[in-house]
Amino acid sequence: MILLNRVLVWLSAAAVLVTLEFLLRADTLYQLLIAAAVLNAIVAATIWQFTGRRLRKAAFWNFIITPFFVVNSGLAFLVFLEGESTRQLVTIIVTVAVWIFLKVTFLYFFFRPKYEAHTLENISSYLNLITVFLFCTSVFNLIILLRVPAWLGAIGSMVLVGLLSYQLFWIDNLAFRTQWRTVAVITLVTGELFLAVSFLPTSVYVNALLMTLGYYTMTGLARNWLLNIRERRVIARYLLISCSILVIMLLTAKWI
């Protein structure tokens, strides 16, 4: 069984790569929907296998959050992306991201001697940042190109960030009753931030980076606070990093 699960990590990543390559050559909505269905089926089947083949287990639904949003945000991002080399690069990044998450999940469940403490938490944190950027870029493109209302984008970003934040805190072994207020605040602030950023005369990539920076700052501070890591230097480090990146972004951004 362990050998099967080990091979499944590689097979799933390879299947994701092949499906994304198919997406790059898709020219109809029907083909796009097929690619999305296949990607989600691959991720769901692999997580289902790793979590004991039980859909009713909380572990399945909690572990599937990050890879589900990674592949779907990556798919949406590719739809709007131009340039063959750039699209290939994003395809590789999404595939590697899925492979890393599945590999760490495999070690977490089946090979604990090789699993390093807090690896799953850290990997989820990094992949969530990538997901927020890909998702927000796609939504801002929808707002500009298809005139989708900004409030719909705000709701979508709130759902995304709410689930990613919950999953991140859950992996840190924080009970729902401990984290729900914090997740609610982060979710509401995300919606307000999205609406504010949508009015900026900057590119979709700058806007998405601002949303990602907001997510990084809020979840980083909240995560440490909930884990009782409340030293001033930790808070100061997050604020310093966030403010420095914000200043650099705004000074170097191309204002439309």
TrEMBL record:
Record-annotated membrane-spanning stretches: 7-24, 30-48, 60-81, 87-111, 123-144, 150-171, 183-200, 206-226, 238-255
Keywords, sorted A to Z: Membrane, Transmembrane, Transmembrane helix
Stated name of the protein: Uncharacterized protein
